[in-house]
Write a sequence for this structure.
């Protein structure tokens, strides 16, 4: 009976196993297309199961899993991300002539399974398990284009840094186990409330912050991100910038607000400082990039900085703001990468200059990209506006007006690099005037992302209401 | 009804998207019609407007995001209704003036109507979030309008405009959120928050945050440097909108938000604001005098004229604020007219350099005469609207800031100086050979300036046309701020 609430995960696992068999035994011509269809089918069934499984809130498997509103949010979000990435991948794998395109989808699904596990874990062990499942799949995805040295470089860098981060994280976890005798977050929280904040607990906390800071690419633990993002196959970059990052944030929320709630003063201060340097450095460095994927890597570092403002607030309103910002950011960024993929499939270099004249080569993609950028800047009528609005609000409410102001100035700085692309698309005369052929599924992805961005920008009350209900304490 | 003012231009912009790219004429017609409808609605609303009622009229109030206390709340009173009239009028005339656009017509008219949506929204919104949403919406079409159809330095001017205003407005947003949380009323309702009493020290900081956002728009010295670039590079019709409507968003922000909501801070900071106003008046006038480019001259004259509004705001007497509000409307008319005329001259002579022009009275007499008319209106000739505004500001501020008013009057002298000098160099004198045979004003162009001339004259002769609308709201505001 207790397996029913995790039926979506079971369905996804079954899909993974089945698709693995398909990869091995199906030798037909159109393996790429078949696998994409299978993946999309598997993820859709997962989402449907999630929608129809009777709602369950509480702990499972002696506290290993926590199925609450936040878990529901992420378990819904991650398969949706998977759908987007699968749609983006097919043409890309074909154009780049990847060997064994089928395996790509299986590994993607494994990463998603790991992310879902992270978001619903109630124990340090399950968090680590989910994290490693996601990370190892991610290393493979980064190096998926075996012929491309840049892809290999991305994988190696990501792997080395990721392994280091996992080690640091694991060390922090082991300290907590040594100090409290527990790995369960609820038990840890109870014990910490009694012992207060002795130095060793704080040291252990710092290890957790560093380990998870690597995973979300917070400055100064971000060095791997630009290379990994630039070298990885574009759909994988899209996935990295939203999937594992959001999952790491889910893990952070779990560990810090569930487990270390008694140390809120200490960690919120740490995250305030991290947020400050992450957003500022991310934005300033992005200004100098020539490669669009590298630029978006720094942009996503900056956004991790914004999201951490919600942690710095240290309140449930901060958590709501983070979740909503993540939602806006995820779909906006997927939309951007769909456009980048569409362009990269034809131009192949992913340079910022590739965008020249896109407003005439493909008016729709160019206009959509403008909306996505406006959303990332936080201009109204887009999802990003309300995300930023809530983060500002959470910061101001917690007395962090200075952080809100820093974030405000940072939003303005970020205009600088998004502007380069918009300028190239609209104000610079195109070298290549031919219409840009765009695959149907990429158009679909852009359209869905655009709709989500705009609809969330106008009517976000239903989402907000739910998130508030999910995260309200008690 | 107010919703229709916002959504009809938006609907028009969407309609334009459906027109095939090659059919420029259809696009222009669709744009013009959707620009005209709001003007007709405003005329109708003017007929329905109650001159005696206190408080908001034509109110619409729906929940938008109830869990945060954000609502779709529209209404208009004596402070905003003149601005609504101005927006509808200038937008329509600007669309009419844009018929000579040749490049990417569809995109241009789409953005123009989107811009109108944003401006209308700013003036009728009574919820802070809604206000902010429209405030920011204005930025995006404006950026593209300057950046794509502007002059040689358009890219620089467009991004400078965008960045300045964006930084100002995000800081304003932090101020708005501080108001929201400090009041603890769980509402973004402007009127409800204006009733709340905030602690004086808190008022001071929030006032500064809001001031920054508004000051960039006005623009108040030293945040003005985007204006000459943007005005000069923008295409004619867009310059007219920038000067005619956009700058007023800033001073409207003072009238609607900072003064009524933070009266203690407004009083405490009145003298600095008056000084800034004074700097605007004198500096703008002197800078205008030094310009070699006709359009830049008009741009700096805008800075100078917006200074009168600031001075009136700082004095906080009923008459001074009437003057300030009157100046907002009057300057909207006159500056739009000036930019349209400069655009007409540029279209014909292909230069705006004052030294190269000359003798236009002899070559394009109608345009030249109207330009002389607009210049006289701008320098405050009695009988035209600019005079009424400046006179009221001086009269109302004299008690509080005698010295400032005396200094400010010298600004009027400088203004007369640079306009008369401009008229002498550009319009008078021998007709230059290269400008002989230039076509004079066309019927469409005449249509864009004549309504403005009529309004300028009418308001100069019968200021009560506008004053009667503004008075109840201004008296309410002054009662709140308490005078000096």
């Amino acid at each position: 009976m207790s397996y029913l609430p995790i039926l979506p995960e079971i369905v996804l696992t079954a899909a993974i196993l089945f698709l693995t068999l398909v990869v091995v035994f199906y030798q037909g011509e159109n393996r790429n297309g078949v696998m994409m269809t299978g993946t999309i089918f598997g993820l859709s069934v997962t989402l449907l199961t999630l929608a129809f499984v009777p709602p369950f809130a509480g702990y499972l498997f002696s506290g290993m899993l926590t199925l609450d509103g936040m878990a529901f949010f992420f378990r819904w979000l991650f398969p949706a991300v998977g759908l987007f990435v699968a749609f983006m991948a097919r043409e890309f794998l074909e154009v780049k002539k990847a060997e064994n395109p089928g395996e790509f989808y299986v590994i993607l699904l494994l990463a998603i399974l790991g992310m879902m596990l992270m978001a619903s874990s109630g124990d340090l062990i399950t968090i680590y398990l989910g994290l490693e499942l996601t990370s190892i799949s991610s290393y493979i995805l980064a190096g998926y284009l075996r012929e491309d040295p840049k892809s290999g470089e991305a994988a190696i860098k990501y792997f080395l840094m990721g392994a280091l981060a996992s080690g640091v994280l694991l060390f922090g976890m082991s300290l907590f186990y040594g100090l409290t005798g527990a790995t369960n977050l609820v038990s840890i929280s109870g014990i910490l409330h009694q012992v207060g904040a002795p130095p060793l607990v704080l040291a252990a906390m710092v290890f957790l912050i560093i380990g998870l800071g690597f995973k979300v690419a917070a400055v100064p633990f971000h060095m791997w991100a630009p290379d990994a993002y630039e070298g990885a196959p574009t759909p994988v970059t899209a996935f990295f910038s939203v999937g594992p990052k959001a999952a790491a944030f889910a893990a952070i929320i779990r560990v810090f607000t569930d487990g270390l709630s008694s140390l809120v003063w200490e960690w919120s201060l740490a995250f305030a400082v991290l947020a400050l340097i992450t957003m500022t450095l991310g934005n300033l460095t992005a200004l100098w990039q020539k490669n669009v994927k590298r630029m978006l890597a720094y942009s996503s570092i900056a956004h991790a900085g914004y999201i951490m403002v919600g942690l710095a607030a240290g309140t449930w309103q901060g958590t709501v703001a983070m979740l909503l910002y993540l939602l806006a950011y995820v779909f906006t960024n997927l939309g951007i990468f769909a456009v980048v993929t569409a362009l990269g499939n034809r131009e192949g270099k992913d340079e910022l200059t590739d965008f020249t004249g896109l407003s005439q080569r493909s008016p729709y993609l160019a206009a959509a990209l403008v909306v996505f950028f406006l959303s990332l800047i936080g201009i109204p009528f887009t999802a990003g506006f309300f995300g930023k609005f809530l983060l500002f609000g959470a910061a101001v409410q917690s007395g962090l007006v200075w952080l809100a102001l820093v974030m405000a100035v940072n939003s303005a700085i970020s205009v600088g690099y998004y502007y380069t692309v918009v300028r190239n698309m609209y104000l610079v005369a195109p070298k290549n005037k031919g219409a840009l052929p765009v695959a149907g599924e990429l158009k679909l992805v852009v359209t869905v992302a655009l709709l989500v961005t705009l609809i969330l920008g106008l009517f976000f009350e239903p989402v907000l209401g739910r998130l508030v209900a999910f995260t309200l304490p008690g | 009804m107010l919703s229709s003012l916002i959504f009809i231009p938006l609907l028009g912009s969407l309609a334009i998207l459906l027109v095939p790219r090659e059919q420029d004429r259809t696009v222009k017609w669709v744009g013009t019609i959707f620009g005209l409808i709001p003007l007709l609605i405003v005329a109708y609303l003017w007929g329905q407007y109650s001159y005696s009622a206190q408080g908001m009229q034509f109110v619409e109030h729906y929940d938008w995001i109830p869990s945060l206390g954000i609502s779709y709340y529209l209404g208009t009173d004596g402070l905003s209704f003149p601005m609504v009239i101005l927006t509808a009028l200038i937008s329509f005339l600007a669309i009419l003036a844009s018929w000579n656009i040749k490049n990417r017509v569809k995109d241009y008219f789409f953005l123009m109507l989107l811009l109108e949506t944003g401006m209308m929204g700013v003036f009728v919104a009574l919820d802070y979030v809604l206000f902010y949403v429209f405030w920011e919406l204005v930025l995006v079409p404006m950026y593209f309008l300057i950046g794509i159809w502007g002059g040689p330095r358009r890219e620089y001017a467009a991004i400078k405009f965008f960045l300045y205003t964006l930084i100002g407005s995000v800081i304003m947003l932090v101020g708005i959120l501080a108001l929201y949380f400090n009041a603890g009323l769980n509402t973004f309702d402007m009127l409800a928050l204006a009733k709340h009493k905030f602690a004086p020290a808190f008022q001071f900081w929030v006032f500064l945050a809001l001031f920054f956002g508004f000051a960039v728009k006005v623009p108040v010295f030293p945040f003005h440097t985007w204006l000459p670039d943007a005005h000069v590079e923008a295409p004619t019709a867009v310059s007219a909108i920038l000067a005619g409507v956009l700058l007023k968003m800033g001073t409207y922000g003072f009238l609607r938000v900072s003064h009524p909501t933070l009266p203690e801070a407004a009083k405490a900071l009145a003298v600095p604001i008056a000084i800034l106003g004074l700097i605007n008046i004198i500096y703008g006038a002197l800078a205008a005098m030094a310009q070699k480019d006709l359009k830049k001259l008009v741009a700096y004259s805008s800075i100078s004229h917006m200074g009168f509004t600031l001075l009136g705001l700082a004095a906080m007497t009923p008459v001074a604020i009437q003057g300030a509000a009157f100046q907002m409307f009057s300057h909207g008319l006159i500056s739009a007219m000036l930019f349209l005329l400069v655009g007409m001259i540029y279209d014909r002579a292909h230069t705006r350099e004052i030294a190269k022009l000359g003798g236009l009275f002899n070559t394009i007499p109608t345009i030249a005469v109207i330009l002389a008319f607009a210049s006289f209106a701008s320098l405050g000739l009695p009988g035209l609207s600019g005079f009424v505004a400046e006179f009221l500001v001086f009269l109302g501020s004299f008690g509080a800031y005698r010295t400032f008013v005396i200094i400010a009057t010298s600004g009027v002298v400088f203004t007369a100086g640079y306009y008369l000098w401009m008229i002498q160099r550009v319009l008078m004198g021998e007709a230059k050979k290269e400008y002989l045979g230039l076509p004079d004003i066309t019927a469409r162009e005449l249509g864009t300036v004549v309504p403005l001339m009529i309004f300028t004259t009418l308001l100069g002769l019968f200021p009560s046309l506008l004053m009667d609308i503004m008075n109840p709201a201004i008296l309410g505001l002054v009662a709140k701020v308490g005078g000096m």
Q: What stands out?
A: Chain B has two domains: 1-268, 282-484. The two ends of chain B are 38 Å apart (CA to CA).
